[in-house]
Amino acid sequence: MLNYIWLTLLGLGILTALTLDVNSSLTDKYKNNKPMHVTVDWQAEQYSIHADTKMHISAKSFATFYNLNPALNRNLTPDPSPQTDIQQKIRIVYNEKEKYYSVYFLIDENAPDIWKEIAKSDGKENDISAKLWLGNNINDKTKEAYIVIEPVSLMKMKAITNAVIEYAAKAVTIAIGLIGIMALWLGMMKIADQAGLISIIAKSVKPITRFLFPDVPHDHPAMGSMIMNMSANFLGLGNAATPFGLKAMEELDSLNPVKGTATNAMCTFLAINTAGLTLIPASAIAVRAALGSTNPAMIIGTSAFGAICATIAGVATAKICEKFPMSFSDFIEYLIKRWKFFTGIFLIGFIIVFASSTGLFTKLGSTIGFMNTETIKAIIQVVSVLAIPFVIFSFITYGFIKKVKIYESFIDGAKEGFNVALRIIPFLVAMLVAIGIFRASGAMDFLILIISPVTNLIGMPAEVLPMALMRPLSSSGSLGVMSEIMTAHGTDSFIGILASTLYGSSETTFYVLALYFGSVNIKRVRHSVAAGIAADIAGVIGALFIVKLLFG
Q1: Which of helix, strand or coil describes residue 52?
Q2: Quick one: three-class SS letters along 391-447?
Q3: Burial class (CB in 10 A: 0-12, 13-18, 19+), 428
Q4: Tens of pLDDT along 60-119?
Q5: N or C: which end of the chain has fewer CB within 10 A?
Q6: 443 closest CA partner among 172, 171, 166, 163
């Protein structure tokens, strides 16, 4: 399955980039070698070799020149017209031989989008060069002029080239950054394992793990690693969760009868991970606080609801798909044996629909009003801060009491971290480069165009759709999209709350799959992708439902 996903991301990305570049060339989107009428601040003493001055362009003139008027625009990705006249500081240098002025100016966040694209044509530069010819005097301080901006071409293909280099380097950076963390937590796990603490923890949650992972013995080391991973994820301790998860995959692979093929336990475990069930979505809350929200932590409840929906859908999909292929009669028998589980899901859905139709959640929301959010947030933050020191102290102390050679055990476990971190580099490079190409090409815009009719039916605002689609692909990308949405619409608006809830109630599915399966060289991932996507969809629907109910 990952083969097809990888090929799709690469193929769609490159094809979309070529299509957009050809369209830009045919429509002359960037007006290469075309003069644009401007005015410049000018005084007699500025007829020198070089000078700093200011260039003025009316919003209407700019929109007409670049065909940004919606009625005139033929570009596949229209650039909104500037709402105010453009006043741009420029530096000019006179070219005596050619009889024109070379112009250089910097692009900031307030510049027109099309100029930002032109500025990036040579990488991450934020400057534009142009040629300028002076015209008639308008008054004593202003002259007419004509400016020709540097020609650009193949913008999307250049963006893809830059993305390939950037994401390949990012994959290696991520892997190297994991070495120290992996060494720390795998060393701790070794101490806890030899002391028997992992077995005690596994026995305490045996009823749950027996249902989720029936093929894994309750006293197997994989069970303890999975429990520690899920606990760390729930507390928002991502740095600790990843090493535990990678160790869990290694232990699960030791039980794997067919190497290179994902087991049922692996698929279920990753379904839980891709659901992103976290007690406190710290990153989303931090961004909300930085952008001036009056109640940054109000998304704790909504994110938990969305993540619970995602977890239920992911686990249910994994459990159903692991039974296929099977005959219809076997499928019916399977449903009968699991009638309690599926009845529970049906009842939860019925309660949600009933509460929505009667306005029960709205009344509860207005009654509770998230009045105790700050208290809850404070408690969770204290727990999150103390959790890692507590786990380290507890593991070491328990190991010492049980007469484990704690230092030697730690070193033995830590050695494994280095090997695991190096082993996942090729898999991270492959997946992150494909995601980078897909993002840089503009293919996301077409995906939004295709999916928007469906999302419109469930009442999802178009402004939030990029966030929902970006989240399974890239954590940093979705964080940036979320920030942009809340900056434009307000952190405490319906759209702002929904965007941050979506971030807090889901996970980067394809990154998780590439990372965890790559650590044990799994090539056939079976139904794990279906379970992950089901979790993503359920998380989006759950987040939309609860936010509409309480804030819509």
Answers
A1: strand
A2: HHHHHHHHHHHCCCCHHHHHHHHHHHHHHHHHHCHHHHHHHHHHHHHHHHHCHHHHH
A3: buried
A4: 888 888 887 544 333 333 445 556 788 888 888 888 888 888 998 888 877 888 888 888
A5: C
A6: 163
Question: For residues 428 and 171, is the Cβ–Cβ distance under 8 A?
Answer: yes
Contact of 43 with 467, CB cutoff 8 Å: no
- The domain limits of the chain are 31-152, 163-551
Q: What are the residue ranges of helices labelled H in 471-527?
A: 475-489, 494-504, 509-518
Burial class of residue 137 in the structure, from the number of CB atoms within 10 Å of its CB (0-12 exposed, 13-18 middle, 19+ buried): exposed
The parts of the chain modelled with pLDDT lower than 50 are 70-79, 353, 356-359, 361-362, 364-371
How many other C-beta atoms lie within 10 A of the C-beta of residue 284?
26
CB 232, CB 240: distance < 8 Å: yes
Per the structure block, which two tokens stand in for 23?
């369209």
Beta-carbon count within 10 A of 543 CB: 31
Could you give the 3-state DSSP secondary structure of residue 369?
A: coil
Question: Which helix (DSSP H) or strand (DSSP E) does residue 531 occupy?
Answer: helix 528-551
**Rounded Cα gap, residues 524 and 416, in angstroms:** 24
Tell me which H or E stretch contains 164: helix 155-195
Report the C-alpha gap between 129 and 92 in whole angstroms: 10
Q: What is the pLDDT of residues 123-175, one digit of tens each?
A: 666 788 999 998 888 887 888 999 999 898 888 998 899 889 988 888 888 78
| Joined tokens for residue 219 | 């006293």
- How crowded is residue 238: how many other Cβ atoms within 10 Å of its Cβ? 15
- The one-letter code for the residue type at 466 is P
